[in-house]
Write a structure and sequence with these properties.
Blueprint (H helix, E strand, L loop, with lengths): L1 H36 L7 H8 L5 H10 L14 E4 L5 E4 L8 H9 L3 E5 L3 E6 L8 H22 L7 E9 L3 E5 L6 E8 L13 E7 L4 E9 L6 E5 L6 E3 L8 E10 L6 E4 L5 H4 L20 H14 L10 H12 L4 E5 L3 E5 L15 H9 L2 H11 L28 E4 L5
Antiparallel strand pairs: 1-2, 2-10, 3-4, 4-5, 4-6, 5-12, 6-11, 7-10, 7-12, 8-9, 8-11, 13-16, 14-15
Length: 433
């Protein structure tokens, strides 16, 4: 009897477990169906009603004026926990963007993603793959909200036509991670946005602020940080990408901090750069400030001077925002560089509590007339030359030199003459729309 009772209890436990699982599965399926049918949004309901759902509302009219540098004395938007400012460039801050009850579930899904470490001399952080391919419930809802509500609203607010491309990924900044000053201009990016999923206890002392720079418009260069925006849980920030949208993510300073965010860009069709082929003989006309000319083929691996390779490099750079070119220099040039570097007199330079590095006087007061079989000085001159900056323009899609020509043609047909134009192509990447 005791054994039978035990078996009976066991069966009842099994049935109870199966019943609970069935309920859980049913609820999960119902939720997934709501997601697929587009019946659910996690955005705060008042935002849907007053901002995203009404293009001619007073709030949107106020923000349009701010974006157009029209002085506004109306604090109504603050009632909806929105800040819209034009200095140092137009940007919008929306607090309590999503319904509070949805944030924890979204965070759990984000922290289950696989992250890849990204690091070079400009940035250090971890990034997920494209969230457009993720089917998690709350990530899917967030993605649909970005497409169906935010994107359409941006088009109306900024009077621009965006295409169907939306970049979307998740990033984690831990202690020591940083993203240095940049303007976000790359190919056809139009609007940048970021959504924070940091801890409620995050403070300015933890670092990781979004720093906005003033701009010297005569030189189109950043001047200094004039505003620092703290990462706040459930805060959404967006701004128009322009030649003046210089910003950075300050270094995260807290040991156990984890600055979690979703960020991306909306794209516009009018900002796509075109590829223009420049005949090699024209390079002589570009050498003005530095009286130095050497054919790139004397130093650089010819593979990286082929047009097809340059196009592939640009595509990869657009996808990952970084590129590593293995064996970039010719082997004999690289060997000379290594040998000469060993004999260089290095000096230690220190910025207290921040950096420590070594420098030499190589590259200062360079003059071609005094170069005598010194490969380091030759390379320093080459790295400052017009032709190399034009080559870098091809690799990145950025207009890195004022002499990079601008063409109205969408793309030259250089397939048949590619060998005659090795290393001589550049791009029109004016993204000031």
């Amino acid at each position: 009897m005791e054994e039978n009772t035990g078996r009976k209890n066991c069966n009842e436990d099994d049935l109870s477990t199966i019943k609970r699982q069935t309920i859980d599965i049913t609820e999960c399926c119902k939720k997934r169906c709501r997601v697929m049918e587009g019946l659910q949004s996690n955005i705060r309901s008042s935002l849907i009603k007053e901002m995203f759902g009404s293009t001619d509302s007073k709030i949107n009219s106020t923000m349009k004026n701010i974006f157009n540098n029209v002085k506004v004395e109306d604090d109504e938007i603050e009632l909806y926990k929105i800040q819209c400012e034009s200095y140092p460039f137009p940007h919008i801050i929306i607090d309590e963007f999503n319904e509070k009850s949805t944030i924890d579930d979204l965070e759990r899904e984000l922290r289950c993603l696989n992250f890849n470490d990204k690091s070079n001399d400009l940035y250090k952080f971890s990034q997920s793959k494209d969230l457009n391919d993720d089917n998690s419930d709350n990530i899917s809802i967030f993605r649909r909200d970005i497409y169906s509500h935010v994107k359409k609203w941006c088009e109306n607010l900024m009077n621009i036509k965006l295409n169907d491309t939306v970049d979307l990924s998740c990033a984690i900044y831990r202690c020591g991670d940083v993203l240095l000053c940049h303007d976000d201009r790359l190919d056809d990016r139009c609007v940048a946005f970021i959504y924070y999923v940091v801890d409620n206890e995050w403070s300015a002392d933890h670092g990781g602020t979004l720093d906005l720079f003033s701009n010297d418009k005569s030189q189109n260069q950043p001047v200094k940080i004039v505003k620092s925006l703290n990462p706040v849980r459930n805060r959404f920030i967006l701004f128009r990408v322009s030649p003046y949208s210089y910003h950075q993510v300050s270094e995260v300073l807290k040991n156990d901090a984890s600055r979690l965010s979703i960020s991306g860009w909306f794209h516009g069709p009018d900002l796509v750069p075109s590829l223009t082929i420049i005949p090699r003989e024209h390079f002589n006309n570009f050498i003005s400030h530095i009286e130095f000319y050497r054919e790139l083929t004397r130093y650089i691996n010819p593979l990286y001077l082929e047009l097809t390779t340059q196009i592939n490099i640009r595509l990869q750079f657009k996808e990952t925002s970084e590129i590593q070119l293995k064996d970039f220099l010719l082997p004999e040039i690289y060997e000379k560089v290594v040998n000469e570097l060993k004999a260089v007199d290095w000096r230690t330079t220190t910025i207290p509590n921040r950096y420590k590095f070594q420098t030499s006087n190589i590259g200062t007061n360079l003059d071609e007339s005094v170069i005598s079989n010194n490969i380091l000085q030759e390379l320093m001159l080459l790295f400052q030359s017009e032709q190399l900056f034009l080559l870098l323009s091809n690799y990145t899609g950025l207009n890195l030199h004022e002499m990079a020509p601008i063409s109205d043609d969408s793309e030259d047909d250089g397939s048949s003459d590619a060998d005659d134009n090795v290393g001589c192509s550049t791009s029109n990447s004016d993204t000031r729309h």
